[in-house]
Amino acid sequence: MRLDAKIPGGPLTEKWDRHRFELKLVNPANKRKYDIIVVGTGLAGGSAAATLAELGYNVKNFCIQDSPRRAHSIAAQGGINAAKNYQNEGDSVWRLFYDTVKGGDFRAREGNVYRLAQVSNNIIDQCVAQGVPFARDYGGLLANRSFGGSQVSRTFYARGQTGQQLLLGAYSSLSRQIALGKVKMFPRREMLDLVVVDGQARGIVVRNLITGETECHEAHAVVLATGGYGNVFFLSTNAMGSNVTAAYRAHKRGALFANPCFTQIHPTCIPVHGDYQSKLTLMSESLRNDGRVWVPKKPGDTRPPHEIPESERDYYLERRYPSFGNLVPRDVASRNAKAQCDEDKGVGDTKLAVYLDFADAIRRDGKDAIEKKYGNLFQMYEKITAQDPYETPMMIYPAVHYTMGGLWVDYNLMSTIPGLFVLGEANFSDHGANRLGASALMQGLADGYFVIPYTIGGYLAGTSFSDVTTDHSAFRDTTNEVAEHVEKLLSIKGKRTVDDFHRELGLTMWDYCGMSRNDEGLEKARKKIQELRGEFWENVLVPGSNNDFNQSLERAGRVADFLEFGELMVIDALARKESCGGHFNEAHQTEENEARRDDENFCHVAAWEYTGDDKEPGLHKEPLVFENVQLTQRSYK
Amino acid sequence: MTTAKTINLELKVWRQKGPKDRGKLEIYDAKEISTDMSFLEMLDVVNEQLTLEGKDPIAFDHDCREGICGMCGTVVNGRAHGPEKGTTLCQLHMRHFSDGDTIVIEPWRARAFKVIKDLAVDRSAFDTLIQAGGYVSVNAGGAQDANCIPIPQEVAEKAMDAAACIGCGACVAACPNASAMLFVSAKVSQLALLPQGKPEAAQRALSMVRTMDELGFGNCTNETECEAECPKEISITNIARLNREFFKAGFFSSVE
């Protein structure tokens, strides 16, 4: 299989314009003849469903939650980037493009990233028009703050709940289209398989999570916006329901999976504190605008923070990276926190934490100013830890947060299955090996509001479709396979719960395929995952029946897929014999312990093909071509 | 985090197989619960135990577990989301309970929210309310530059206060009339305060209030329980603003 990314020719700055002109159009009257399935209602899926319906397509939209308003985009805190240059700091589309390519450690496509930077400005306009209450300065104009990996303030925000406000904006547009009858909404449905007819994605099979019924839905194209796979680690900042199932089932039907080992470990999360813990909570990166990260200089220092004098503190990020300071990119900040803890300088009960201290900012700006910026985050921290961050420094530690890898897509966001499009975190395309803060919201909305509405038209207008209904044998066969899978899960009646397996898988992934990796550990992890998967299919205990609201069964299906997908991550990590961004292989580092890329051999996207159960996946490489930026060792010093 | 201890509790949990089942309270022991656990993590522990004993685990909705998605929520000892002010159930920690406590856990109870199973209820009526007008009619593509609409900071802040609603349904569960006034008023207020929402303000207020009545939500009689239990502390001044918008629309607008 030759991977053709279909990047338009011509100068970088003109590619998207030119491509939009060259794309075939579906005339307004004909749009109503096309049905489109959108799976997921987050920033990417919700905005895509709403916008496609505005254009006149018939949209069916699915989500696993009880309402489209609850997709996990809602939990994004800090903000959304755009190249508006409202602060007059010299920002531009080019600078946002450059920062994103560099932040991703030169493992993303120039063409995609440039387009992302271009449409970033339209997103802010659209969201303001919807009534998203962004933060404003006293004159009534929009306010900005800084995020990691950038030296300009280009992040728009709505307190510490930007994701919520942007999602409610998309949800309001979606609600309008539901009321108009252009979107048919299917909440509490989980996509369990993709239906491919004559090589085209023509529908999906879903499970109604209330009744357990399997339902078939047909369409001319299927859009997946089902988020990332961070929950393979069990503990992550993802919502409990976030999973890889829809993407992985599409992978098994022929969609290549790109760069699965690129995962982002976010530096500022509330540390792990007990083995009963169900999830980790993020503390927005925006806190690093004003908080200073430090550890005691002396290893094994157990004094409480206020007893450690200034001279015995190591503000290690400011010391090592004077020009970016506390605002280095996430991968760099996370690895440094781990390095400090590995040297026994960690703090708190578990010694797996560093301080994030606001004392200087409070002295400088006053408590009120800090409260206005971060009040809800401080409150959340206090609720979870019973400590007051206005009085004592926060304790933070890295946690799994985002996955840059995802289904491979071309410039049109179409996967290797014709008619299957993938948006947002579920695709791989824009963030390379590390995503910069406030860029996830930007990408989700860019894909949904401003990319897919054009590119899907090009596909529909240029494709001939046979008449396919859910009576087609492909739907019947796929439904039977789904039913068999569910029955098998229920029939094992073993001795270990689903969560028990998930926890063990997560720990293996974290220990061997987390912040720091080596070949020996990865080999070990691969074996462990295979064994665990074997045990799962003999010894898992799934209570209840299929014909019911059965949350254990839902989780069992997701964990079964994680047990296969986890191995693919490890295989990808083993194959990439370099360090870049979030993928840090200890054998490949500079003398200063920074990631050392190997541009000669690994300047490519690794896209994996499913070849059968327990068979080695096939590797396809898409070379990355850089014509506009020079590949350099990333430096934030 | 250093003061964690373990406590033992007796739970009385509402069990109901489906919307047509009568349902009843069942008693379970929750043993050796760390006070650092969240309330939902405590339920996870009980569910693991029930599963291993061959019993049906307790169904409850939850997702983000950081207080923002609005998916979780039950009535705990008669209080929506439990005893702590401004807190969702997932952010309620067991350190607020004592060894030997009995905790009664029930689903939201309202005519417009049918029980699906145990503690999970159907809140799709909230989606129907937003579909009745909780939006600005603007298609993607045509918006002007964002800074063309200056909005005074204090107005933007007020709109944000209202927009913070997570749609969990606690206001309805807490209200003796099972009214959705706080939910509706939060959305009407956010959009009525902002210039973007003004063209459709009258239509929105009339349509959302009418839909609220049709869906079987009760009327507001100023009990203020909704404000007291709202995990995002949405103020009832929004209800006053909704009333103003509603009357203004009824008497002074050309909207039918």
- Strand order of the biggest β-sheet of chain A: 5-2-1-9-17
Strand order of the largest sheet of chain B: 2-1-5-3-4
Give the SSE order of chain B as H and E letters: EEHEEEEEHHHHHHH
Oligomer description: heterodimer
Number of domains of chain B: 2
Largest sheet of chain B: 5 strands, mixed
Mean pLDDT of chain B: 96
**Average pLDDT level of chain A:** 96
Whole-number radius of gyration of chain B? Answer: 21 Å
What fraction strand of chain B? Answer: 5-15%
Low-confidence stretches of chain B: none
> What's the CATH superfamily of the largest domain in chain B, by name?
Alpha-helical ferredoxin
Query: Could you say what the CATH topology of the largest domain in chain B is called?
Result: Fumarate Reductase Iron-sulfur Protein, Chain B, domain 2
What ranges of chain A have pLDDT less than 50 throughout 5 or more consecutive residues? none
- Main CATH class of the largest domain in chain B: Mainly Alpha
Biggest interface goes to: A-B, 86 and 80 residues
